[in-house]
Design a protein that fits this description.
This protein has helices at residues 4-16, 36-47, 58-68, 82-90, 100-105, 161-174, 176-188, 198-207, 217-225, 266-276, 279-289, 302-305, 317-322, 324-333; strands at 24-29, 50-55, 76-80, 118-130, 153-154, 212-216, 238-241, 252-259, 292-293. It is α/β, with parallel strands linked by helices. The chain folds into two domains: 4-122 and 253-305, D-Maltodextrin-Binding Protein, domain 2 (3-Layer(aba) Sandwich), CATH 3.40.190; 123-250 and 317-333, D-Maltodextrin-Binding Protein, domain 2, CATH 3.40.190. Strands 1, 2, 3, 4, 5, 6, 7, 8 and 9 form a nine-stranded mixed sheet that branches. Helix 2 (36-47) links the parallel strand 1 and strand 2. Helix 6 (161-174) crosses helix 7 (176-188) and helix 7 packs across helix 14. It starts with a helix and ends with a helix. The mean pLDDT is 92. It binds fe (ii) ion. Fe (ii) ion is lined by residues 80, 216. Fe (ii) ion binds next to loops.
């Protein structure tokens, strides 16, 4: 096992000596954040490796990699949400890699058990509420089922990966039957049929359509950092809760990637993933997109820091991913649109 100084040396060597390294990296990415530009340009500058990008939505990219098969030029897949990383693995689109840098820098719970995918940034899925209307906000995910919140909740659809992943995590913690009952009670508390993205849930509070909403932290962080229609002008009306601070902690969603199964430039692919675990790259995830770095100890941006510190749920991402099919069935049976 390489010592930390050795790993640091490897990273430094990566950044310093590979400047002359030849070659390319074919990156398939469904991350749609402007700030990733700096991630890529810094890597190219530091390594001399040219990144060719194929960008699109996650499902299209997975289908494309599958269709391309053994001739796929893909080296790395980058995407958002644990369930999508696991789906890529289940489809046989990724390969196991051996990297002491990733092993040492990333906490175990964001690493696939077979080293086929790795989480590089995290987002907490938390509860926002209208401070004027709600004086006793839900403090746990379970509280969302309380009838006192009838007609007050905005939440995303069951077809959304964020909804599926948090439900899968709750199934791991509470069991399938308990979560089925929870989902039915939450459906009864909907202010409207699920619609829109996370930002639309926050807008629902501003418009008065609902008083409580579930959203990933970075959408609110973004509205703090830059103007977001329908949210940034009303930041003062929002209260927020990191749920379950006395037990399981707040659910963490991942953004990450892995090396493609037929990667023509495997060494460059591993170098790129190791770069994503560097302090520099980790800083961008937070500063650029209001996410939480996956590497412990890396600083977070002011907008993210404003949300406050909290206890994250460090449930193993692979366990969550394995529960996704059950979560989909439970949500459907509960009538969660
Ligand atoms: Fe998102």
């Amino acid at each position: 096992m390489k010592t930390s100084t050795c790993v640091a040396a490897t990273l430094a060597a990566l950044m310093a000596s590979s400047a002359a390294a030849e070659g390319v990296l074919n990156l398939y990415s469904s991350r749609h954040y402007d700030t990733d530009e700096r991630l890529y340009s810094d890597f190219e500058e530091a390594t001399g490796i040219t990144i060719n990008r194929i960008e699109g939505n996650a499902d299209e990219l997975l289908a494309r990699m599958e269709a391309e098969g053994a001739n796929s030029p893909a080296d790395v897949l980058l995407t958002v949400d644990t369930s999508r990383l696991e789906r890529a693995k289940d489809m046989g689109l990724l390969q196991s890699i051996d990297s002491a840098v990733l092993e040492q820098r990333l906490p175990g719970y964001v690493q696939d058990e077979d080293n086929q995918w790795f989480g590089f940034s995290q987002r907490a899925r938390i509860l926002f509420y209208d401070k004027t209307e709600v004086t006793d906000p839900p403090m746990t995910y379970q509280d969302l089922a309380d009838p006192k919140y009838k007609g007050m909740i905005c939440i995303r659809s069951s077809g959304n990966v964020y909804t599926q992943t948090i439900t899968a995590a709750l199934i791991e913690h509470l069991g399938e039957e308990a979560v089925k009952g929870w989902a039915e009670a939450v459906v009864a508390n909907f202010a409207r049929d699920p619609q829109g993205g996370d930002t639309d849930q926050l807008r629902g509070i501003v418009s008065g359509e609902c008083d409580i909403a579930m959203s990933n932290t970075y959408y609110f962080g973004r509205a703090i950092r830059k103007p977001v229609d329908g949210v940034s002008d009303s930041l003062d009306m929002f209260g927020w809760v990191f749920p379950n601070q006395d037990d399981i902690g707040a659910h963490m969603n991942l953004s990450g990637g892995g090396v493609a199964v037929n990667a023509p430039n495997k060494e460059n692919a591993i170098k790129f993933l190791e770069y994503l675990a560097s302090d520099q790259a980790q800083g961008y995830f937070s500063a650029g997109n209001d996410e939480y770095p996956a590497v412990p100890g890396v600083g977070i941006s002011p907008s993210v820091a404003q949300l406050g510190f909290f206890k994250p749920d460090d449930l193993d991402a692979t366990a969550i991913a394995n529960n996704i099919p059950t979560a989909q069935r439970v949500l459907n049976e509960a009538g969660w649109e």
